[in-house]
Amino acid sequence: MDEFSLIGRYFAGLCEADDSIALGIGDDCAQLRVPPGQDLVVSIDTLVEGTHFLPGSDPGRLASRLLGAAVSDLAAMGAEPAWFTLALTLPEADEGWVAGFASQLGRSARDFGIRLVGGDTTRGPLTLTVQVHGWVPAGRGLHRRGAAAGDLVCVTGTLGDSRGGLECQLHPEKGVDAALMERFFAPQPRLDCGRRIAPYASACIDISDGLLADLGHVLEASGVGARIERRQLPLSPALLAFCGEQQARDWALCGGEDFELCFTVPAAHWPKLQQALAGCGVPVTRIGEILPADAGLQLLDAGAPCALPGTGYNHFVSAGGGADKE
Amino acid sequence: MDEFSLIGRYFAGLCEADDSIALGIGDDCAQLRVPPGQDLVVSIDTLVEGTHFLPGSDPGRLASRLLGAAVSDLAAMGAEPAWFTLALTLPEADEGWVAGFASQLGRSARDFGIRLVGGDTTRGPLTLTVQVHGWVPAGRGLHRRGAAAGDLVCVTGTLGDSRGGLECQLHPEKGVDAALMERFFAPQPRLDCGRRIAPYASACIDISDGLLADLGHVLEASGVGARIERRQLPLSPALLAFCGEQQARDWALCGGEDFELCFTVPAAHWPKLQQALAGCGVPVTRIGEILPADAGLQLLDAGAPCALPGTGYNHFVSAGGGADKE
């Protein structure tokens, strides 16, 4: 057994028993049980050193970011998280690195209620891929398609914080805010919100590329337009203190990797949705409304039309690189 | 939309409709249906440039090798293939490369009866990860555990050919054999064999690290030993012509990536298993038998004990690198 096999075995300890796992780590495949009446939902995500994070990043922070971002796709479907697999490519079999990574991966997995069931450990440039699996009631699930003219556009939490956390790393001389850094490295997938809004929302997406870009995906999939009010974007006190209101609003529109949910809801469902969200602990803010397709995507500032800022979110470090989920 | 998003969209054309796919490429998750009474089986595999294949390798060959190797894990479980996801990290958005890769990926997917349902395309050093999904009757499925003393040890097809194909690339001056190269680049997962043997076999694994290493995994998982007869190893005429009998037998024992099945079967099931395999078109060879654990792994040569060759299979290019499936 070579050194990579030994490293691979490190993760076997993270595989906890569960009724849904007939066979976990250690065979050619994991064997798993989707409950009757549920559809399986799956999503795969990759982080690459130099593209999505700076060389030398702390392995624990990478683990929480990797899994948080991936599980966020389950939240956007209103899904119950179940299992994940990990494909880890490492330049060397560094047990210290793996220990830090696996330790935080285990903590994040427990926080999100998701279990490691398999993986592959290989040698090469640092690349981390995770596939997450969950389930939704058969034939249900929140999709990008489904928004209709007149629906309200809403977001969970606050926007732009992760972009602030990135700025703290790129320009530490301008100041470092721990809360913003935490938003960058430890995204909190809005699983509870997703499940609560699923019965009422008409469409949903998680904000990974930036609000305008991701709302654009909903508009395209649904064949509609939208109007967004810049003054209604939810901003955290930390971000406002860090960069001021104008910059914060731009980052809220275009900063990526907030991993909040952007969803649409028919106006008639709004009261029930608010009831459903009571006590969930995450604010939900109305930021605009869905329009017919020919309206396109319009941005208002205190009711007056204003220009859209550049919507292309380029991932960290390598401008023009980035990632796309097919 | 950046260039990588455009490349990502290239794969959307590979997503064919199917009753089991409620939602394919183009949302936060794919939404999928496991038939009632079936367990889901999943496996994730990575190929890295410079570790698993030479820089500059033909993209079509990489596609067939990537998917063939991954689907082989489904064959080893006796599973029905269903869906796969692809995480592709590319140094640049090279449409020509992607066209060649996607075209062969589509052909291989159709050959294996598996459908692309999602992916992630990122910028970075060339790394290819695929997760395959399939199903087996609930509570069934072929596992590594389950072999018992007295069981026969069998393999499908011929062994060592892929190692011969690797040699053709490393030392082309010694001669290049097209059939061996094909075994290296276009592994044929033994899906049909796996399903036919599943009701009778006691344990199974696919041969990715070499017969001795992979049989070792079965012995460890089952808590048994085994005796293998070197003269009974099935060898192809192409391999015998390429390197002679002694070398061929060593490569059959230790060469990796043949992606044949190694399985064990109670002697009482052997006649029924042979009937079940009739007409499958792939030879199955008895090469030894399972012993109690304290016997360890014994190698015979025409009935006489002989030393085990080094069993560590090091992947291509980077000695000591390689891959391990957890």
Automatic annotation (TrEMBL), chains A, B:
Q: Which residues are noted in the entry as Mg(2+) 5-binding? A: D209
**Chain residues that bind Mg(2+) 4:** D28, S43, D73
All copies of domain PurM-like N-terminal, residue ranges: 26-136
Q: Which GO terms describe its molecular function?
A: ATP binding; magnesium ion binding; thiamine-phosphate kinase activity
Q: Does the keyword Iron apply?
A: no
Q: Which residues bind substrate?
A: H52, E257, Y313
Residues where Mg(2+) 3 binds: D28, D73, D206
PurM-like C-terminal domain: residues covered: 149-293
- Binding of ATP occurs at G119, D120, R144, S208
Q: Which domain of life is it from?
A: Bacteria
Q: In which pathway does it act?
A: Cofactor biosynthesis; thiamine diphosphate biosynthesis; thiamine diphosphate from thiamine phosphate: step 1/1
Positions with a binding annotation for Mg(2+) 1: D45, D120
Under which EC number(s) is this enzyme classified?
A: 2.7.4.16
Which PANTHER family does the UniProt entry name for this protein? THIAMINE-MONOPHOSPHATE KINASE
Q: Belongs to which family?
A: Belongs to the thiamine-monophosphate kinase family.
**Miscellaneous information on this protein:** Reaction mechanism of ThiL seems to utilize a direct, inline transfer of the gamma-phosphate of ATP to TMP rather than a phosphorylated enzyme intermediate.
* Protein name (database record): Thiamine-monophosphate kinase
